[in-house]
Amino acid sequence: MTDIIKKIGSIDWHNITEEMHQNGYAVLPGILSDNECEILKSGYDDNSRYRKTVVMARHRFGLGEYKYFDYPLPDLIREIRTSVYPYLAPIANSWFKALHINTSFPSDHTDFLQQCNAHGQQKATVLILKYGEGGFNTLHQDLYGDLYFPIQIVLMLSEPDQDFTGGEFVLTQQIPRAQSKAVVLKPKKGDALIFTTNFKPEKGTKGYYRVNMKHGVSEVRKGNRYALGIIFHDATN
């Protein structure tokens, strides 16, 4: 666990903060080692780790499958979630302040989870996703309850163009009174992509306004694509 904490601590968070303010997303290269990715993938079929499995086609979410981890989370996932959160909380607070939203996030993730529990949100939201050939994920937002943290992470566990083709990560920005903008990203195996859960502030001539954003995954043309999603708030169900 020491290595992952050191990696997270050595990141240029000032630069990442600026990228988040500007774009609503940022890529952290090489957060997970190849071995760590393989360990997470190898546990996919061990259902004792998970509280729920979702087959996307049944709910018209896309084509693929994902599983929600149960508490206690695996040590590696818990350390990433706990160690990254304090760097993201100031970004989240500045966004809410700019948009005049009366919510403030604590600097410690344990304190934030206590707030989730007080809102009846007690179920783990960290998930592992698997897409096979033809798999995709429709555009969506991961909220899970009244209390949510506006930033989340996805870690790529498979190598693009080797383990799979297609399957790009897609973000859309819904700009008021304008057409939506699409951003297509292709993180490598072990990379972490930080992005807004549902919106980012944008400065206009009359102050800040909200740019709503959704995310999804384009169709996988070949192979299997695995990813780990880390959401910082808990769920009601």
TrEMBL record:
Keywords: Dioxygenase, Oxidoreductase. The keyword Amino-acid biosynthesis does not apply. Residues 23-233 form the Prolyl 4-hydroxylase alpha subunit domain. Its cofactor is L-ascorbate. The keyword Oxidoreductase applies. Pfam families: Oxygenase-NA. InterPro entries: DUF2086, Pro_4_hyd_alph. This is 2OG-Fe(II) oxygenase.
